[in-house]
């Protein structure tokens, strides 16, 4: 009987043990590999976002300076003026490491940051913060799960110290994350309780296994936007760098790409995403509001982490295509009030590197589609980002205010002339 069982299950057991040995043999220490790093930096995929080893490897590379560019779906718009294309075409001293795509928000970025805290300590970063994130029902477990890996949760548990930010992050995690092996420990953190020595040992053991698995699988099948998109687009840039000529090229490319619609948006985007439903979208966005959302509380998690890591960050606030605003009925006043609320949350805490492009959605070829920067918009962003990353910057002095975790702030709706005195009180 034993022999028969061994013949049935023995090969399977040996295969499992062999896989475990191979995975555990993978080196979890990030080693420089520029070709892999270039691909990972422009992949804009959940695979890269979830991988600790790929982020750590690139951001630790002493020979090549990769800078984290946090954002969402704008990074997919890879034209000739995209930040990665400009950095490549003009051989700049830095390369953007693009983090985020459609569906990523402040909470996903906060947990993603837990995997690379040593790599952002005392460094710089760029963060595109879109008012469209700040919707009323910002609790989307499905979107969160796309970008979440167990390693992020384990790193958070390992890093937490019982602060209000830790408690709030754990509470938000339990709201949006799927049931898993770490949820009981998350509940303890959410309730302000300390983890036991055994739980801490368990976190380290589980994290070791997860990191070995990450190191083994992370380099497989990374989307190659670098060779397919960034390099070809960089050939369109005038040489050497000349801002005036660059603007002319951007305008020309915008003109060529927006010939089949009245909104000044990219032809391909219009054909795929707008043409079929255009009539039904008239006045469709009248009721949208970005002024009240738990996303403001989630955003505070990101700011607290940047402050704790002493990271010098430039924030960019994009506009919406004005022709699209007029057609869909999106309230421009509401949009500007939400921008004002975001800016107050930033500047009142010492995050003063803010590029507000929110009023530029009516400029020619500034937007590639309805809500994303393109051509001249990318250049306007680059006018601020490139000097920020290449010239010496004073280290900001942050003044973190935990009141931004309160529901009162999430629900606060500013007026056009608001100085936020009611919230201060």
For the structure shown, list the relevant keywords.
425 residues, mainly alpha, Rossmann fold, five-stranded parallel β-sheet, 51% helix
What do we call the CATH homologous superfamily? Answer: SGNH hydrolase
CATH class: Alpha Beta
Residue share in β-strands? 5-15%
Number of domains: 1
Under CATH, the topology can be stated as Rossmann fold
Strand/helix succession:
HHHHEHEHHEHHHHHHHHHEHHEHHH
CATH architecture: 3-Layer(aba) Sandwich
Main sheet characteristics: 5 strands, parallel
Q: Which structural class matches the secondary elements?
A: mainly alpha
> What is the number of strand segments?
5
Overall radius of gyration: 23 Å
Give structural notes.
Helices cover about 50% and strands about 5% of the residues. With about 425 residues, it is mostly helical. It has a single domain, classed as Rossmann fold. Strands 2-1-3-4-5 form a five-stranded parallel sheet, with helices on both faces. The chain starts with a helix and ends with a helix.
């Amino acid at each position: 009987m034993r022999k028969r069982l061994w013949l049935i299950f023995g090969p399977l057991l040996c295969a499992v043990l062999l896989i475990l040995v191979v995975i555990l043999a993978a080196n979890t220490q990030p080693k420089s590999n520029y070709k892999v790093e270039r691909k990972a930096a422009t992949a804009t995929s959940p695979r890269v976002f979830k991988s600790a080893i790929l982020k750590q490897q690139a951001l630790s590379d002493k020979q090549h300076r990769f800078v984290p560019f946090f954002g969402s779906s704008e990074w997919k718009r890879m034209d000739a003026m995209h930040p990665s294309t400009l950095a490549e075409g003009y051989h700049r001293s830095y390369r953007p490491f693009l983090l985020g795509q459609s569906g990523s928000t402040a909470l996903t970025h906060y947990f993603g940051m837990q995997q690379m805290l040593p790599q952002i300590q005392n460094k710089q970063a760029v963060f595109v913060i879109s008012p469209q994130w700040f919707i009323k029902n910002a609790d989307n477990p499905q979107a969160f799960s796309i970008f979440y890996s167990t390693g992020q949760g384990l790193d958070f548990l390992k890093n937490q110290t019982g602060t209000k930010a830790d408690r709030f992050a754990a509470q938000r995690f339990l709201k949006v994350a799927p049931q898993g092996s770490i949820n009981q420990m998350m509940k303890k953190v959410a309730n302000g309780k300390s983890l036991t020595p055994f739980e801490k040992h368990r976190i380290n053991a589980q994290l070791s296994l997860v990191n070995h698995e990450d190191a083994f699988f992370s380099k497989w099948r990374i989307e190659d936007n670098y060779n397919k998109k960034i390099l070809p687009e960089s050939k369109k840039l005038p040489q050497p760098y000349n801002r005036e000529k660059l603007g002319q090229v951007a305008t020309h490319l915008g003109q060529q790409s927006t010939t089949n619609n009245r909104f000044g948006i990219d032809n391909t985007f219009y054909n795929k995403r707008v043409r079929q439903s255009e009539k039904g979208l008239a006045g469709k966005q009248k009721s949208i509001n970005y002024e009240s959302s738990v996303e403001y509380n989630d955003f505070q998690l990101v700011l607290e982490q940047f402050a704790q890591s002493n990271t010098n960050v430039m924030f960019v606030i994009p506009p919406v295509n004005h022709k699209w605003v007029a057609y869909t009925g999106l309230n421009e006043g509401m949009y500007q009030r939400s921008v004002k609320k975001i800016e107050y949350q930033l500047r009142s805490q010492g995050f003063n590197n803010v590029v507000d492009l929110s009023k530029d959605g009516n400029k020619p070829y500034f937007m590639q589609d309805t809500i994303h920067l393109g051509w001249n918009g990318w250049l306007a962003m680059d006018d601020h980002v490139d000097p920020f990353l290449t010239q010496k910057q004073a280290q900001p002095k942050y003044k973190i205010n935990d009141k931004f975790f309160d529901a009162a702030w999430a629900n606060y709706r500013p007026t056009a002339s608001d100085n936020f005195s009611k919230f201060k009180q």
